[in-house]
Amino acid sequence: xxxxxxxxxxxxxxxxxxxxxxxxxxxxxxxxxxxxxxxxxxxxxxxxxxxxxxxxxxxxxxxxxxxxxxxxxxxxxxxxxxxxxxxxxxxxxxxxxxxxxxxxxxxxxxxxxxxxxxxxxxxxxxxxxxxxxxxxxxxxxxxxxxxxxxxxx
Length: 153
What we know:
The chain is mainly β. Helix content is 10%, strand content 39%. It contains 1 helix and 9 strands, in the order αβββββββββ.
């Protein structure tokens, strides 16, 4: 009789543990934040960001930009800046069927700042992936990230 109770309890647990996933979607982002002391009035400055999947070229000048500014090389990027910070936000930067089918965040990005063809700063910047966002629960797709790469020039 003890065996019967144990098997029945095990069958109940297996049924309770079945994954039931919802269909909630989410969006991954990578925000590249660069603190700076550039003399923006003498701009423009070129900011190049290279990821394993994209190469972006952004231009930063004397006038602060709003969220409508963009970079060349990746159409899902926004650019904004002020006298102390340049921020480039890439939406859905990680997924690539061949290069990164799991959509995991990059470990680092390469950033170069130049002016008039003269390189002023170059650095490989670590990416902090943050915590995964799993809106449908563990074991259910998708998994999204709000990753940040932050550095001071």
